[in-house]
Design goal:
The chain is α/β, with parallel strands linked by helices and 475 residues long. The protein contains 17 helices and 19 strands. A seven-stranded mixed sheet has the order 7-6-15-16-17-14-18. It has a five-stranded parallel sheet with strand order 9-2-1-13-19, covered by helices on one side. A three-stranded antiparallel sheet has the order 10-11-12, with no helix packed on it.
Length: 475
C-alpha cells in the first residue's frame, strides 16, 4: 500500500525533510512524496545568481559549522569536500563613524578571556570595568524568561549591549533585544550563569571541555564555491521520485476521507495524503489551517515576524578602501538605517571579478520596518550614501540588486518556548499533521535541517508499516 505525504514549503527545511523521508523508504511504491512551493524556484531564503562574473546571494550566504547537522548533511550529499570557509574572519563595528574590530574570540556576547575585551577600543574604560566585575554579579534566581537586553545589561553592562549584542542581534535576527527571548536564542549563556555563576567562567569551562575541532572543517561558518544553491541543487538531485510542484500555491488544508487530508491548489487541482508537513512561515501555516484547526491557527499567528532587504552593490576595487575582513555591524546608536554590511568578495573567494568588490547591505528589521517602504532604487541609493563614509566609496556602483524578504524573520520574543509548546499541543489534536522550520526551535540552516530531521522521523513513525524501515537502518 502506497502512503502519501505532502510537504508544503520548498525551503531548506522542506527539501531536507523530503530527502530524509525518501531515505527511509527508497521505493516510491511505499511512499509517495509531493512538495509544493509557491515560488517558481526551490530553496526558500537560499538563492544564488551570477551576473557579469559576480556571484550574488539573495538571502542566506553561509551556515555555521559549529553544530554538526549541516556539515553531516553536506557529507551525505557528497559536498563535504566543497565546503568553503571564509577568507577573512575579522568583523568590524561602526563606532562614531569609524570601524573598530570586534574583540578576538567573541562568542556571540563576549569572550572567554577578558584580555581581548580590555584591549578593544570598542568599549570605554567604564564599559571595560563593568565587564571585569561580571564574575561578581549575583546569579538571577528568578526562573521565568527574560529578554536578551535584560540579561546583557544585568551581567555585562549597558555598553556591551549597545555596542556588541544589539548590532549582532539586529544583524542576525532582524530583531529588538528588548523583546527577544534569552532562553530561546542563547540558552547556553543562561546555563553558564546558573551552573558557574558567571558568563566568563562558563565560557572558560566550555572552552576546556570542547572536543578538538576537525582541522579540515572550515569555520566558524562555510558556504560552497558556487554559492548556497549547491546545497539546494544537491538535495533536489539526490531526492528521487518526488513530485516537485514549484510555482504552485496551496489554498488550505482540509479534512478528506477518514484518515486523510485534502489540499486544494491554486491551479484548480487538489492533493490527497495521509500526512502533511508544513514548513511554511508560521503566518502562512496559520492561514492554511484556519478552517481545519482554528486554535492551532491562532497559536501560529502569535509568532511575530520581521521583514528585511538585502542590497548587493558592485564597485571597482579602487573605489573602495581595502577590505580586510568579512563585514561590519552598525549599532543603533550610530543614527543610520544600515544594520550590517557583508564584504562578500573578501569573505569568500571567487565572488567578484578580479579588481572588483561586492558588498551586501542589510536594512529593515523590527525597529526599522518603515525604511522598507522606499522603492528599490531609493534603498540602493541609501545604502551607497550610508556606506560611503565607512568604506570610502567613490562614484556610483557598477550595479545594484535589491532582494526583499517580506515577513521572513520569525521573532523569538520573550516566552517564545511557551508559544511553541501551545502550538505543539494544538498540533497533536490533528493526527498526521506536522510542523517544522525556523519559526519554532532555531533559525539558520543547521537548525532548519535538524527540525526537518525531527519532523521526518515523526512522519515516518506515523505512516509506519512493514514496508517502512527506521531512518537509522536506512542510513
Amino acid at each position: 500500500m502506497t502512503r502519501r505525504v505532502v510537504i508544503l514549503g520548498g525551503g531548506v527545511t522542506g527539501l531536507a525533510a523530503a530527502y530524509r523521508l525518501r531515505r527511509t523508504v527508497p521505493s516510491p511504491d511505499d511512499l509517495a512524496i509531493t512538495l509544493v512551493e509557491r515560488r517558481s524556484r526551490l530553496g526558500g531564503s537560499i538563492g544564488t545568481e551570477r551576473h557579469e562574473g559576480y556571484l550574488i546571494e539573495s538571502g542566506v550566504d553561509s551556515f555555521f559549522t559549529l553544530t554538526a547537522t549541516a556539515v553531516e548533511l553536506s557529507g551525505m550529499l557528497g559536498l563535504r569536500g566543497r565546503l568553503q570557509g571564509p577568507a577573512h574572519r575579522r568583523v568590524y563595528v561602526a563606532r562614531r563613524g569609524r570601524l573598530v574590530p570586534l574583540p578576538e574570540g567573541l562568542a556571540l556576547l563576549t569572550t572567554p578571556r577578558l584580555g581581548p575585551m580590555v584591549r578593544s577600543s570598542l568599549l570605554s574604560l567604564r564599559g571595560k570595568a563593568r565587564l571585569a566585575v561580571e564574575p561578581l554579579v549575583p546569579a538571577r534566581r528568578e526562573q521565568k524568561d527574560e529578554s536578551l537586553a535584560s540579561f546583557v545589561r544585568r551581567r555585562l553592562g549597558r555598553e556591551a549591549l549597545e555596542r556588541i549584542a544589539d548590532p549582532l542581534v539586529a544583524g542576525i535576527h532582524a530583531g529588538d533585544p528588548e523583546q527577544l527571548s534569552m532562553s530561546s536564542l542563547l540558552p547556553q549563556f543562561l546555563a553558564y550563569e546558573r551552573e558557574h555563576g558567571s558568563v566568563f567562567r562558563g565560557l572558560q569551562a566550555a572552552a576546556r571541555s570542547r572536543p578538538v575541532r576537525d582541522p579540515t572543517l572550515p569555520g566558524p561558518f562555510a558556504s560552497f564555491p558556487n554559492g548556497m544553491s549547491e546545497l539546494v541543487n544537491a538535495l533536489v538531485a539526490q531526492t528521487p521520485d518526488v513530485a516537485w510542484r514549484p510555482g504552485t500555491r496551496a489554498l488550505a488544508i482540509e479534512r478528506g476521507r477518514p484518515g486523510s487530508f485534502e489540499i486544494p491548489l491554486d491551479d484548480g487541482s487538489a492533493l490527497r495524503s495521509e500526512a502533511v508537513l508544513l514548513t511554511t512561515p508560521a503566518p502562512v501555516s496559520a492561514r492554511l489551517l484556519e478552517k481545519l484547526e482554528p486554535k492551532l491557527a491562532d497559536a501560529l499567528h502569535a509568532i511575530p515576524y520581521a521583514s528585511s532587504a538585502v542590497i548587493s552593490l558592485a564597485f571597482p576595487a579602487d573605489a573602495c578602501r581595502p577590505l580586510d575582513g568579512s563585514g561590519l555591524l552598525v549599532p543603533r546608536t550610530e543614527g543610520v538605517h544600515l544594520k550590517a554590511c557583508t564584504w562578500v568578495s573578501s569573505k569568500f573567494e571567487g565572488r567578484a571579478p578580479s579588481g572588483h568588490v561586492l558588498l551586501r547591505a542589510f536594512y529593515g528589521g523590527v525597529r526599522e520596518a518603515s525604511v522598507l517602504d522606499r522603492p528599490d532604487d531609493a534603498l540602493a541609493d541609501l545604502a551607497v550614501q550610508e556606506l560611503t563614509p565607512l568604506l570610502g566609496l567613490r562614484g556610483p556602483p557598477e550595479f545594484a540588486r535589491v532582494h526583499r524578504w517580506q515577513n521572513a524573520h520569525p521573532q523569538y520574543d520573550v516566552d517564545h518556548a511557551e508559544r511553541v509548546a501551545t502550538i505543539e499541543s494544538a498540533r497533536t489534536t490533528v493526527p498526521g499533521l506536522f510542523l517544522a522550520g525556523s519559526a519554532y526551535r532555531g533559525i539558520g540552516v543547521p537548525a532548519c535541517i535538524e527540525d526537518a530531521d525531527r519532523a521526518a522521523r515523526g512522519v515516518s513513525s506515523f505512516l509506519s508499516t512493514e514496508a517502512l524501515v527506521p531512518m537509522e537502518a536506512a542510513a
